[in-house]
């Protein structure tokens, strides 16, 4: 399993190593020189990997738009729940002047006055955003090419559209970028360190354990396959993803015959559902026979933000309880590294890191689980800022239970 901070550094090192042949030292270079150069490269990589708040800042976003931020922003609008989650986790909540305020962000305890969405709690209203005159607008990938983005840019607002988060590395990179975009680089670095620390427990716990097959049931036959961060959540937590093993790409439906044939040992689902949202045939699987279910906080599982690590912890601790407990003890990780939900509720803000993993499964989440999805033959190609169920559930959900699109 990857360590987020190390990988961000490693990626930079690899890029730094791809230099023209003429720039590389001659074969006669001494070992001492090589060591010094390596140390310098590593130091440079660390510097580049850490968020750097220097302005003016010019970046190209996922739409190919080049944006320039002349000075540190004082006001920010988050168009999607995952944008809001990241802002709160890095300690930038005081700069937020607009965001979705709905079941998909209730764990952030934001004021209703900040809401910029339609009655569905999902769709941003361009006029609401424009009226708040934010210095910068953060937009999750699902809004790429959306009319809302065009309208905001035509109104003169600076809008940054994030690339799709298909992995934990992508989530970590978005945390780093958010810190730079809003002037909270220290908070972003602290959040990345916190994520890395939490993942180190799982990393220690699962390598030598058996990897049971798990079915992530989103509802109406939908599941997450290859190329989704939910797939990596599952594999990082120490289980094999049935969707990926069955050849599912992105978010799509899987037949009940395949589920029964694969015979998962565990079923993972969003905790807004009272029971696993599976079809009747799936009740004959080993997971059902042994009642091996993991109900994970919907918002943590579906939003590509820092709290994905809590979803990973929840799954790992349920599937590999003894190994997880031992690893947590061995690494002496303080599981209370951040403000818990009760304190957040009192203060109305987050200190920049997520709450206890134990609270993750008990927190109130959005209504909507993926069982709002319909049309068995379709698949989701893009996920708004709230990850998997969105394109699928989001598009379908609005018609049913507000579906999710975070």
Give a written overview of the molecule:
This protein has 406 residues and is an alpha/beta fold. The protein folds into two domains: 57-193, Nitrogenase molybdenum iron protein domain (Rossmann fold, 3-Layer(aba) Sandwich); 210-397, Nitrogenase molybdenum iron protein domain (Rossmann fold), CATH 3.40.50.1980. Helices cover 40% and strands 11% of the residues. It has 17 helices and 13 strands. The chain has helices at residues 4-17, 31-49, 81-89, 126-131, 147-154, 168-182, 185-205, 229-236, 242-245, 256-262, 286-289, 298-302, 308-319, 321-330, 341-347, 357-360, 389-397; strands spanning 57-60, 66-69, 76-78, 96-98, 136-139, 159-161, 213-217, 222-224, 240-241, 251-253, 266-270, 293-296, 379-380. Strands 4-3-5-6 form a four-stranded parallel beta sheet, with helices on both faces. Helix 3 links the parallel strand 3 (76-78) and strand 4. Helix 13 packs across helix 14. The two termini are 26 Å apart. Keywords: Membrane, Signal, Transmembrane, Transmembrane helix. Residues 324-344, 353-378 have a biased composition (Acidic residues). Residues 75-327 form the Fe/B12 periplasmic-binding domain.
